[in-house]
């Protein structure tokens, strides 16, 4: 979570410098700023992987059997979840501030689904960061550039789709589909299978 906050700080500083250089807030800077923020987040995710990898090696050295009590997959899940929760909190904080008033959502012809859609988008971001953490760590461990590229590309795609708001049908639908597909991919990487689901449901 701290590393995600560092990426947010770096993105904020980059935005402030860009606005100062332009002398004004140019709308054309928004997509570039969003892309830079995504790349900084993924860079911090990679730093988190390297840090936890070193910590895992240290724990293995301290263990009696030469093995770490935590697996890299567990660390990937916790890291992704912390990234997601941090992202979700900052995503929803401004929306909650707006909900305090004054005014009524939709009174000037805006969508009345603003808050419920924002809630679903925040939920999708939290889940996506968790799934991306699992996929990203596995790709780093196996040195799979394709997996890393798909995580970064998926993150850029989700950020880009949010620019379609308030046309929520065009943004929320694809993001939820991407969340489902990414979740299935992360489930498979974590060793999950349909057989395991059946065993879980039958309590065996």
Structure description:
The protein is an all-alpha fold and about 200 residues long. It has one domain (about 1-200). The protein contains 7 helices and no strands. Helix 1 (about 1-20) packs antiparallel against helix 2 (about 30-60), helix 2 (about 30-60) crosses helix 5 and helix 4 (about 115-140) runs antiparallel to helix 5. The longest helix is centred in the N-terminal third of the chain and has 34 residues, at about 30-60. It is globular, with a radius of gyration of 19 Å.
Descriptive tags:
globular, mainly alpha, 204 residues, 7 helices, 0% strand, single chain
Topology:
Blueprint (H helix, E strand, L loop, with lengths): L1 H21 L6 H34 L9 H28 L14 H29 L2 H17 L6 H22 L4 H8 L3
Helix pairs in contact: 1-2, 2-3, 2-5, 3-4, 4-5, 4-6
Membrane topology: Multi-pass membrane protein
Subcellular location: Membrane
Subunit structure: Component of the gamma-secretase complex.
Short description:
The chain has 204 residues and is mainly alpha-helical. It has helices spanning 2-22, 29-62, 72-99, 114-142, 145-161, 168-189, 194-201. Helix 2 crosses helix 5 (145-161), helix 3 runs antiparallel to helix 4 and helix 4 (114-142) runs antiparallel to helix 5 (145-161).
Q: Give the uncertain stretches in residue-range form.
A: none
Morphology call: globular
Strand content: under 5%
**Count of helical regions:** 7
Q: Which percent bin holds the helix content?
A: over 70%
Rg over CA atoms: 19 Å
N to C succession of SSEs: HHHHHHH
- Tell how many strands the DSSP assignment holds: 0
Give the overall pLDDT as a whole number: 86
